[in-house]
Each structure stands twice: as C-alpha cells, then as structure tokens.
Amino acid sequence: MNKYNVVIIGGGSAGLSAAVKCYDLGVKNILVIEKEDFLGGILNQCIHNGFGLHEFKEQLSGPEYAYRFIEMIKKTDVEVKLNTMVTNVTKDKHVFYTNESEGFQEIEAQTIIFAMGCYEKNAGAIQLAGDRPVGIYTAGTAQKYLNAEGYLVGKKVFILGSGDIGLIMARRMTLEGAKVLGVAEIMPYSNGLNRNIVQCLNDFDIPLYLSHTVTNVIGKEKLEKIELSQVDDNLLPIKGTEKYFDVDVLLLSVGLIPITDLLKNLDIKINARTKGPVVNEHNETSIPGIFVAGNGLHVHDLVDYVSNEARLSAQGVYKFLNGNLHYNNALIVTKNENGIGYIVPQVVNYLNLDDKFVLKFRVTKPFKNVDIVVKADNQIIKKIFKLNLIPSEMENIEITKDLININTKEISVEVKER
Amino acid sequence: MYDIIIIGAGVIGSFIARELAKYEANILILEKENDVGNVTSMANSAIVHSGYDPVPGTLKAKFNVLGNKQYKKVCEELDVKFLQTGSLTVAISEDQLTVLKDLEKRAHENGVEVKLLNEKEAKQMVPNLNNAVRGALYCPTAGVVDPFNLVVHAMENAIDNGVNLALNEEVINIKQIKDGYRIFTKNHQFDGNIIINATGINGETISDFVTAHHFDIKARKGEYYVLDHFDNNFLSMPIFPLPSEKGKGILMTPTSSLNYLVGPSSEFVDEKDDLSTDALTLKQIREQALLIMKDIPFNMTIRTFAGNRPTPSTHDFIIEKVNNHFINAVGIESPGLASAPAIGKYIADELVQEIIHLTIKQKYNPCVKKYPHPNMLSSQERKELIKTNPKYGHIICKCEGVSEQEILDVLERSCPPHSIKAIKKRVRAGFGRCQGGMCQPLVAKLLANYLKVDLSEINYDELGTQVAKFKTKAGDTDE
C-alpha cells in the first residue's frame, strides 16, 4: 500500500494553496487528488476578474488565478492524480480512491486535508413551491454550461437570491444577449459583495428586489412564469404583493454548503451554522491529523481568503507530522454572541499558538456604527469600531497571544451598539 | 396489423408487455412520454404493500396479495433492487388499537401474514417511533422497490423478447376497423387486433374512444419530501398511520436507495398533470408525519415532489374485457405497484387467452442482462472490473457515486434513456443532495456524444425541454 505524509483531497484553490505551503515547509510525499481532469476547481468557470487582489496585488480572472498556483505546483515534486475520486476515508486515515488507470486503490496517509469545496443549495433544499419544469438551475450550473461549454440555458432570466454567483451570472448572461428581469433577495439586504451589486446589477439596470421571494413556479414542462412576492418581517409572503414575470430561466443563488460527505463516515463534528466541520486553530477536525481547508470548512467571499486560510491547514499538517500539535490541555472555546452568526475556529489550543491567531466570523444582519467586542473569559481584550458590517462579508480579527493566557477558557465575540 | 397493442408504458403496461412477450404474437406498446414509467409509476411511495388493508374480495386485495408473492422472483429476474423490509401500521391512541384488531382480521381474510405488536415490541422494532404509539400491526411481507428500474427493466425484458416500444406517441383517437381498432397518434396510425388500455390516470379518455360504458378517473395529488441518506438505521421499514378513506395516510419509508420519503398528501386536483407543490401542504405533511415518528430531520430534505394517483369512480382497479378487441387495465391506484406483476400475468395468461389462443415462444428469457455497479462491489472486484473497463473508475455523479461506464451501459440497453431525467431514473446520477447541480452538464455531454447530436439538442425530459438551448458566439468556435 502506498503511503503519503499528506493526502490533499481536492485540487481547487484551497487544495493547491495547501499543497504549495506543505511543500514550502518541507513536507515530503504530498499527494493531491482531483476529480476533474484539470486543477483549479471551480475557478476555471469563473472567467470574470476580481481574483487575486490580496494574493498577487492585481486583478486576475479565475482561470488566471488558478494558473498561478498550478505553475507553483509544477515546480514542486507534489504528486497529482487527476480524474480521481475519493470514495471513502477511514478513521485510521486510509484513503480509497477510484480512477481509470489504477482502478480502485487504498493508500495510507499520515495526515489528510479535505479541500472539497462546497455545493449550491438547489430548488429541493429550499423547497421551492410550484411546478417542476425544465429551466430552473443553480447559478453555478448555468455558469458551467455558459463558460465551460458555451451554451446559454435561456434568454429571459430571473434570479432568486443575491449570492455572488447569481450576481456575476446576471451580468454574464446579459452580456451574452439574455434579458435579466430582476434579482430577488428574501432578506432586506443583499447577500452578495457590494462591488458585485454595483458592477453586475446597477451598471446593467437590473432591479434588485429586497425582501422578496419567488412564491410560485409556473410551467408544466418548460418554465413559463414565476410569481414574486414581498415578504414580511418573519420572511413570510405578503398576500396581494404578487408580481409575475414571463421567463424561461430561474437561476438560484441561495447559498453554498460545504461538502462534507466523506467526513460524515468519520463521525467528525459538523457545525450547525457553517455546515462545515468543527475545527481548531489549525483547521484540524475532531480527529487529530485530519484537516479541512477552503469552502469545505466554511464558505468564503474571496478566493484570496481561501488560499490564505489553507496555508494554516498546511502548517497544521507540518506541526502534526513533527509531533508539535497539542490536544486536550489549554483548550479555549470560541463563542459567538450577540450579532455574530458563527466563528471559525471553534476551538483554540493555547499551546499550539505561535504568536497569534485569527478569528473569522460573519454577522447575522447588517450593522452600522458598532463595536465588535472580543472578550476572554468575560474580560474585554479587543474592541474594534466598525462603520458597516454586513453578513455577506467575512470579518477577521487577529488575536495576539499576549491577550490571553494558558488558563483562558473562552473567547467570545459580540456586536455592541454605540 | 399488430396482434396486440398496449397503450401506456407505466408499470402496468410494462408488466403486461413483459408477460405477453412469452407468447408468439406481434406486440406494440405506445407511450405518450419520452420515457417509460414517467408519470404515476415514478412518483409514488415505492412500497410493495403486503395486502393487509384492501377490502376483501376486491381486485385490489386479489392482485396485491398475488403480486407481493411474485416480487422477489420478478426482481431477481429483472435485476431490480427490492428490500423485503416488512411494514408497521401504528396506533397512536388507545382507541386506534381496536382498529388495528379489525385490520388484523382483514389481513387474515386476505390471506396476509401479520402480527399485532404491543407498544414495547413496536418500539423495539422501530426505535424512532413517536412516543404516542400504543401498538402496531407488523406485516413482514411488505417491502420497498426501485420503482424506476422496475418499469425500465420490465420493458427491456419485453423488448428483448420481441415487443416493440414507441415513445412520444400520444393517442388522440381510436376507431373500429374490421378485426380490431385503428389507433391514431399525432403523426401515425397503428392497427391492432386486441387493444389493451393501460393509461392509468388517463384511462377513461382512451376507454371513451371505444365504449359508451363510462367511468371516471380523478387525479389525487400526493406531495412528498425526499430526505438525503443521513443514517441507514433511522428507519428500517415503512411506517403507516391507520388508513382512512383518503388512503394510506402520511407515511415515512426508507427507499431502496436508502433515502427516506415522507408523504403523500392526498388532494383531488382538476388538472391531471398538475404536479406542483405548495408550502402549506408540505407543512401539513411535516406535522402529520411527526405524529407517528419522532425527530424526522427535515433539514436533510433534498427534494420535494408530487405524484398524481388515479382514483377510479368504481373504487377498485378497472381490469375488464370490454369486447373481444379491447381490454381496460386502468385506474390502478395504490396498491398498484405491488399488484403490477400479478395484473400483467392475469391479463396475458387469462384475459387475452380468452380472446385468442397464443402459443408459448420457444426462446423466451425472463431475465434481463445484469450490469455491474462498482460501488456495490468489494475492493478486489471493483479493481478487476475497472481493469476490464476503465470507465467504471471515472465518477460522474459525486453525490451518488455513479461512474461514466454505468451511464454508457444504460445507453446501450434495449430500453435506453433519451433524456437527462431518464438517465437519472436509471443510474441515479443527479439524485443526490446537489440534485445534478454538478453532474448535469457532464451527463448531458455524455448523452450528446452518444447520440452524436449537439449539446443544445439534449432534453431534460420531454421533447422540447432542452437544457442548453442557445449556443453562444464563443460556443460556435468551440472544437
């Protein structure tokens, strides 16, 4: 049986960054397993620009961003298996995979990084009401048809959900000659990045209907019409506010969920809010030596953040292989309080910290002129003023080691109105 | 001139075809949809009922009990997943316990093996029953089946034994001719000596072309939840509340693919093709289901759907010889799936034989060819399989672990898929939690390559339901 020091499952932005970092740290015997016949993952269908501002200080398209990392990988001795699907992972870190050339194989890993990305919530998951015609796609699927295959799924489009892929597709389909009639968001605020609202909707006069949702889909075989309704404070449709749009396509951009299929067999704890695994300061799961990175951990707004965060997982691997990760003692639990939806990591081991760590979190709703207050065992250790906070933008707060101590039990984060 | 023309390739039509294929006869089956088993047969609870609850003496009771007994063999011959799980019908109050006793009596009259369980025994058998459950009727012969491949493989077996299938042929009129009837579809006409009407929910429309003897078939809509695979031990068998005049009630069942179904609602609808779902009904389903089960994780929902069941005015299956050239086998509501093999046999071996004597074929094979499913093999077997055909090692549908070769296999079979949905029904690509979000473009491309057509011609389901309708400028220069 082949043995690897680290097996990275997924060759997208997280997996590639983790692989490069592992190599740079001196880890030997690195394997990246990718299901597609190319590296880079979903970046390859994101042909718009806006990637790389943090990583490379320039604006790149998705494929260009991926290419930079692929070039880095090529300069290493990292082994890559393309067209290969991992079918099972065991608690003792045996990885089973299948592909055309090797058939079905079992390998042994010292450490594993799950970097499998996320999937899009679909009509079934949101229990979209009405008929079941052809013409309802998740935004990413329509993006794949358009950017990877060269086909438009329709010409009269409505978009439910203001997630970034939906906004990007509003512009993209418009440029290809489709008419985008509107974007509906059930919340009273947008779920996409502000720059996408401006560049993808406003610049093309595409209306954004906040506090609205699609309440009926009409069309027996082919989509003909959608019913849009305003919603009240409890997000329930208000009778009498129905508007109808004749469309042949309804795109859904209603959320992304980390892919955790392989983790479920391992009884790894999943966080109810992020839908990704519970992790420590090195993105390590409840099983020592099993790490997560990227959108498979929690959904990010920017690929640059994914690349950066994946390096932390790589550092975890490096430390684990050298016996430098500690468990059980000096555990600090992070706690999301008022206004905070979730925090990653959920656990921090003081003994594993170099000089600092970063708390990543999202707010539950928009806030203006507030403080983010971080407490260690109820003592305020950090307070940051924020002019604007919105759920669609992930926040980072750096906590230096000197702000806490070996006896710290809990770190909480909350939003405090001024 | 065909000896026999069957109209409708749902589970009933397909089993009639399969049984008739034993005989020397020239047989055609017409289907209005772009695939077999595409209406009622694909949107139901997929339960093979034991036969304890139909009124004794009815056709429902007769064929259900007979059909259930044939299932194991039929599913072996047709290579279809069938799990004989047993079922529980639960009482959630002391009053309901007396009803269970009546049902036990009815089961005995129907010749069905059952056992009354007290509260403790029931909860031992199914730990996730609602605390309110006071007792249950256990029916060991009930089971769950893969309803999609049941129809496809029954039809494939019929085709392999000489039956002709014509899809996308909706019957718009039928006229009497000498020695039979002439059937008109939009573009064609077909003459047959014996016509068998197996058009289910549309049965009365077809029957009315031929006879003045009228019955009504109403559509009763049932909405369902489909839950993801989350815990194979959550529930091992279908759980029913007490039956009512509206049917078997809101049940929860594992499926043959180890998902879970919760439903169906039961409301009459005017339009027989109204398959819409609505928030209120789904809410009621959740509430009702939680009366018999506890802690159903509805957050694992991957899809909701509706199916329409035929509800005949006669309150029983309509299986009758109208005249020497026309047979009705329609209005087959629950327990139709369980009854289908027995109905097929009865029509082929008895009703048709009363009209014309058919001789048994020398070369008849009741079995379909078995194809491998890599993720059901041991590691070693899987390795060997991929060595002989590497495409079994290339996974297309991530959620359900479906390989490229499995898709290519069904394309080669004699009742092949012509749409993305028809592939989904056969191999489960797109049935998982992403609902085809990731694999649909790959499946569409495989189908286009196989059919040697452009991707823009690939339908999701019916003709005219293309998924990638418009080629872009960039697409034009592609390859």
Description:
The complex is a heterodimer of chains A (418) and B (479). By secondary structure, chain A is an alpha/beta fold. Chain A is 19% helix and 36% strand. Chain A contains seven helices and 28 strands. Chain A has helices at 13-24, 62-74, 139-149, 164-175, 194-201, 261-264, 303-321; strands at residues 3-9, 30-33, 49-51, 60-61, 79-81, 85-89, 94-99, 103-114, 118-120, 136-138, 151-152, 156-160, 179-185, 208-210, 212-218, 225-230, 243-246, 249-252, 256-258, 290-292, 331-336, 340-344, 347-349, 356-363, 367-376, 379-389, 395-400, 410-417. In chain A, helix 1 packs across helix 7 (303-321), helix 3 packs across helix 4 and helix 4 (164-175) packs parallel to helix 5 (194-201). Chain A is globular, with a radius of gyration of 22 Å. The N and C termini of chain A lie far apart (61 Å). Chain B is α+β, with helices and mostly antiparallel strands and 479 residues long. Chain B has 13 helices and 23 strands. The model of chain B has no long low-confidence stretch (mean pLDDT 96). Chain B has three domains: 1-81 and 144-215 and 313-370, FAD/NAD(P)-binding domain (3-Layer(bba) Sandwich); 82-143 and 217-306, D-Amino Acid Oxidase, Chain A, domain 2 (2-Layer Sandwich); 374-477. The chains are: A alpha/beta (418), B alpha+beta (479). Chains A and B meet through strand 7, strand 8, helix 3 and strand 11 of A and strand 18, helix 9, helix 12, strand 23 and helix 13 of B. Strand 11 (151-152) of chain A pairs antiparallel with strand 23 (470-471) of chain B.
Key phrases:
heterodimer, A: alpha/beta, FAD/NAD(P)-binding domain, Immunoglobulin-like, seven-stranded mixed sheet, five-stranded parallel sheet, 36% strand, globular, B: 479 residues, alpha+beta, eight-stranded mixed sheet, five-stranded antiparallel sheet, 13 helices
